[in-house]
Amino acid sequence: MALRSIPFARNSSHFIHIQNCLLSVLNDIKRIQGLGAKPLWISCRLNRTGEQDSPVFVGWVEDVEAANVRIAKGHNYAPIEVRFSDTHPSKLYSDCLKAPVGTVVHRDWKAHKADRTSQRVGEKYYSETHRRSVPIKIGNLYVGTLNTAFSGNPAGKERQTKAKLINWAQKPNSRLVKYIRANLAYSGPRHP
Prior knowledge:
Elements: H1 13-30, E1 38-47, E2 55-62, H2 64-72, H3 79-83, H4 91-98, E3 105-108, H5 121-126, E4 130-138, E5 141-151, H6 158-170, H7 175-183
Antiparallel strand pairs: 1-2, 1-5, 3-4, 4-5
Helix pairs in contact: 1-7
């Protein structure tokens, strides 16, 4: 079976599989006891096939309460509707591709400013305050990122949040990693 290039079509079986994995990640994070921070959304970017640092948005799921906030702010379309296949580069994405294995890249939007070309969807749509991003690792390559956003600081349960993200993005037996490895023509830099 031939592997599908990235980007792939919206509403393809690849899109559906990625979305289902992201929904499972969101539910895993929501189940962390005593988290305190509200999980807003989970997204996935993968490198364009044959590229090293060329992000393509391939998935985004949002919590129901976060969707209500987004709509109340006048943003009727979910980010997946506006950002699917978006190739906007970001410093956060590049930072993730340089992070050591097992590292989660943190953003606190009071301390860290989004790069000036950022669309700042999390802030504008959801009043996001914190983000956690981790490189997706397959074999010895970093093929993309898995990202989660919060309203409030998840630092009190950082160990549990990190473990969930690492399991989904870097363990060979995770559903997300297995799906990408078996079905998509992934590429990326060798991990540090």
